[in-house]
Amino acid sequence: MKKNLLSTAAAALALILGASGCQDTVNTVENRDLAMNPDSVDTRAFSTDSFCRDRLALISMRRSKTPGGVMMVQAQIRSERYGFWSELWSGMTGTNPYYVLYRFDWMDENGMAVSTAANAWQPLIFAPGEVKFIQGVAPNSRCKDFILSVREDPSAR
Amino acid sequence: MRTVSIFTVAALAAGILCGCGSSARRIDPSTQGVTTVRDVNTRDWNDVAARAVNSLVASGALVRQDGRKAIVMINEVKNRSGSRARTQILTNKLRQAMLASGKAVTTTAVGGRGPEDNATRQIRELENDDLFNQATVQKRGTVISPDLSLSGEIINQATRSGRTRENTFYFHVVLTDLKTGLAIWEDNFEITKQETVNIFGY
In the beta sheet, which residues pair with residue B45? Predict the structure, then answer.
């Protein structure tokens, strides 16, 4: 009886380790003394999806101008779905890699949203621990304010 | 008795199968649209168009030194993929974005497959028609020739391994300066889709 219990526990442990060992996480290294002098954007977030909020981390939000004088923003986002339990859970639920959609909306100086083809939801696929840069370009030079929306991709579930 | 039961079960099964349809409704193509491996779907067009618009506007290629708005001719985006892709979907989205940029306008008087709007030429043929007040007929020599031309190509690479099918669509879009013939902006966008079919092949 005791032997059976031990065998079951060993098998379960092997299964868990096996499942978590199947993850393809991304490891990064960067130069410590950064030469860049980015123009960071102060952000305020309105989060309605606690899963998405916990699974993705906004590392930085920067802005710059294109040669044509149009505002451009860049969000640096990292998938936080690494570590033993996260990897185990995402492996079991088949949500690795993590599929999300993002969209930039731009407002002109009067606060009116300007619609272009770039307003569409765009897919993004994250491996655990992966860092991605998503860039949005304002439709014209009158647009200075933006909203970045991120959601899980329901079609990938 | 047994025959009656079989008929009852068959009728129930048929009823359930027939009841599996859904009525027509509007959907959000970005999250609810159909995704197929063989074709470029609506969400693919939206994604490629958004990326192309961002790249084009960010490049500053539409900005002219003299401050005038660039006149862009919409040439052909050739579909060399095996799918029935309607490339006008992409060019229409790009021309709308160019207009919204405030840096360019598109011409409909010339196009890759002839003028998009024949009216520019047609109304000038009214110059000998006494039905019309000649002072209101548009004169020849007033149509503005384009500075730039937008063209492109879509190709694909399909692969199959066992029951897994994969298809990658490569979109190549170019903006050519018609004065010099040089490409002042070009970019490539890829979309890869994969599916594993069941043992019956669908």
Answer: none
pLDDT surpassing 70 at residue B4: no
Residue A22's pLDDT is what?
60
ipTM rounded to 2 decimals: 0.79
Q: Kindly list the residues from chain A whose CB atom is less than 8 angstroms away from the CB atom of residue B31.
A: 101, 121, 153-155
Chain A positions in Cβ-Cβ contact with residue B100 (cut-off 8 Å): 114-116, 139-140
Q: What is the CATH number of the domain that holds B96?
A: 3.30.2300.10
Q: Which CATH number fits domain A38-156: 2.20.25.90, 1.10.150.530, 2.60.40.3230, 2.60.120.10?
A: 2.60.40.3230
Contact indicator for B5, B14 with CB cutoff of 8 Å? no
Residue B108: pLDDT band (50, 70, 90) is: very high
For residue B32, the chain A residue with the least C-alpha distance is A155
